Sequence to fold (167 residues):
Amino acid sequence: MRIRQERPADADDITAVTVAAFRDHPYSEHTEQFVIRELRAAGALTVSLVAEMEGRVVGHIACSPVTMSDGTPDWYGLGPVSVLPEHQRQGIGHALIGEGLSSIKALGGRGCALVGDPGYYARFGFRNPAALVHEGVPQAFFMVLPFDDHPVPVGRVEFHPAFRARR
Fold:
């Protein structure tokens, strides 16, 4: 497996991987592929990495800027993260997340926020913040990871408007 930056020719493969990865996900609204497309169109796809095996895209991770109500800069949202179902539970998602977090840190990011399974993301150091919320999302599924001893912002986080994409 090789992880690399997204190329323009990867867009259709990323869409296919994302649709397949979330097809049977119980908490998905099945709009993840539209979110990625809109982030890309808005120039807000700060980090877009693919996992490739034998020349085939089998996974993808997206990272984009988020806005903190207290004005704290340089925080990013992680996700969606997608791996083809037949390649899940093989460490591809783990590798993509590790590379995505490293990329955000290299850009000067202070931290990362996401909505996801706490049992999975806790292994990367993500935790539920006490004083930061993402409105409309149960607090148990909203998680943050501050980098290099940066404090967790206080208030509300807003993901890029592309996360409201429905088509």
Observations:
- Residues 35 and 165 are 6 Å apart (CA to CA).
- The chain has a mean pLDDT of 95.
- The beta strands are 2-5, 47-53, 56-68, 75-83, 111-115, 132-133, 142-146, 155-159.
